[in-house]
Amino acid sequence: MGGYGTWHLAAAQPEQFAAIAPICGGGNPQAARNLKNLPVWAFHGAKDNVVPLSESEIMVSALKARAGNVKFTVYPEAKHDSWTQIYNNPELYKWFLQHRRQPTVG
User: Fold this and answer.
1) Across-strand partners of 42?
2) What single DSSP character describes residue 74?
3) Which one of 20, 25, 32, 87 is CB 3.0 to 4.6 Å from 4, fit for a cystine?
4) Cα(88)–Cα(45) distance, rounded to whole angstroms?
5) Would you say residue 105 has pLDDT above 70?
6) Per-residue pLDDT for 3 more than 90?
7) With pLDDT > 90 as the criterion, what percentage of the chain qualifies?
């Protein structure tokens, strides 16, 4: 489930990730409380005819409302296959490498 799966799995187990980059997906905005300390860079194609742009916008807004660490990039001409542009963006990989998983307090 791509972007939906990314949002869902990270919200269910945020301690397992250093950062996430959901692409063309959405999730439960209430679950954003679990993601507020996890760096997120969400992506979506503005012309996506499979998953509405609003799905990503809702999650990004929910994270911003909780002072989450979130970036959001919309590719204005991209449809649902926006991942091609995203995976070709070297900035994504630089961003991922800036993050480390936070130790859990047991």
Assistant:
1) 72
2) E
3) 25
4) 14
5) no
6) yes
7) 93
Half-sphere exposure of 10 (CA within 13 A, CB side): 30
CA nearest 86: which of 14, 25, 35, 8?
25
**Count of helix runs (H) and strand runs (E) in the chain:** 4, 2
pLDDT at 54 over 80: yes
Task: Centre a 10 Å sphere on the Cβ of residue 98 and count the other Cβ atoms it contains.
Answer: 10
Q: What is the pLDDT of residue 89?
A: 94
Residue type, 68: G
Total residue length of the chain: 106
Strand spans (E) along the chain: 40-45, 70-75
List residues bridging with 44 in a β-sheet. Answer: 74
Q: For the CA atoms of 48, 94, 96, 68, what is the dihedral angle to 10 degrees?
A: -70
